[in-house]
Amino acid sequence: MKKIGLFHLILMLVLMISTTAPAANPFAIKLGVVTKPGAAQNIMAEKFKKRVEARSDGAYTVKIFHSASIGNETEILQQIQMGTIHMGVITGGPFDTFDPIVRVINYPFLFKDHDQADRILDGPLGDEILKSLETSGFKGLCFSENGFRNLTNSKRAVTGPDQVKGLKIRVMSSALHKAIWQALGANPTPMPWPIYTELEQGVIDGQENPLWVMEVYKFYEIQKFMTLTRHVYSPHINVASLNWFNGLPAADQTLITEAAVEAARFQRKDNREKNAARLALVREKGMQVADDPDVDAFRKRVAGLKDLDLYQAPRVQDLLIRMLEAVK
């Protein structure tokens, strides 16, 4: 009787353990961003992490590698291609070395406002871009946002393109962004993120980024002049390794996609609601802000970019024509 009782006790313990512990160790999704906590990419990544972990019943965790701890954006994309990390929240610019079709959404002065950007990028034209990324080994999930990009510099007030001439402006690793600033007369200098030290030491005169960058990276400490050019609407593209994603069960693919879309919508709304306070902050910190630059003059200087080789691949040219028609 004692042996039977012991057997039953062991069996009960085994059953208790099997019903309270997860069926398997959670799979850790590795997600890379180059920015630090509080930045737009990180807000997207952190909201995605919460959504996935809450809804997967312990099947997934998300490990965020932030602050360029695993490389710059181009290097993160290369690691996603190789499958050494699973996902990334990446600025649109660096994609153009992997798939030139992304140059279409970085075309200068394409979108007039946030509503138009959302309508296009969340619609069939945006889906076409995300689908195209599969040829480079990426699963395009959705667009979150960096925001409308503005010029800052330490040399002089800029209200029109003539005052841009000769400024050494940091740009992303993007042939298009380099071409934009060449057309405006600047000296564009491709440089990976972060760039605070280079600005502080005068290696570069200025840079161009959305308002959140001024706040999070405190560029108001080292840049005196801001011009609200809004020359490019800069999305973040949320991507996964295509091979990894395609190897997941269909239900898990849906879970990850829906979590990314929900996180992106949250991040875009959050980013836009904070912009007025960010603008007030940089003024309070002493930046001189040109609110009403001669945007028409800027636009005329870059109008010829659509005729450059950057846009001559047939499928890129075709999408650009349709995109320009859609935003009229």
TrEMBL record:
<dbReference type="InterPro" id="IPR038404">
    <property type="entry name" value="TRAP_DctP_sf"/>
</dbReference>
<protein>
    <submittedName>
        <fullName>TRAP-type C4-dicarboxylate transporter, periplasmatic component DctP</fullName>
    </submittedName>
</protein>
<comment type="similarity">
    <text>Belongs to the bacterial solute-binding protein 7 family.</text>
</comment>
<dbReference type="Pfam" id="PF03480">
    <property type="entry name" value="DctP"/>
</dbReference>
<keyword id="KW-0732">Signal</keyword>
<feature type="signal peptide">
    <location>
        <begin position="1"/>
        <end position="23"/>
    </location>
</feature>
<dbReference type="InterPro" id="IPR018389">
    <property type="entry name" value="DctP_fam"/>
</dbReference>
<keyword id="KW-0813">Transport</keyword>
<dbReference type="GO" id="GO:0030288">
    <property type="term" value="C:outer membrane-bounded periplasmic space"/>
</dbReference>
<dbReference type="GO" id="GO:0055085">
    <property type="term" value="P:transmembrane transport"/>
</dbReference>
<dbReference type="InterPro" id="IPR004682">
    <property type="entry name" value="TRAP_DctP"/>
</dbReference>
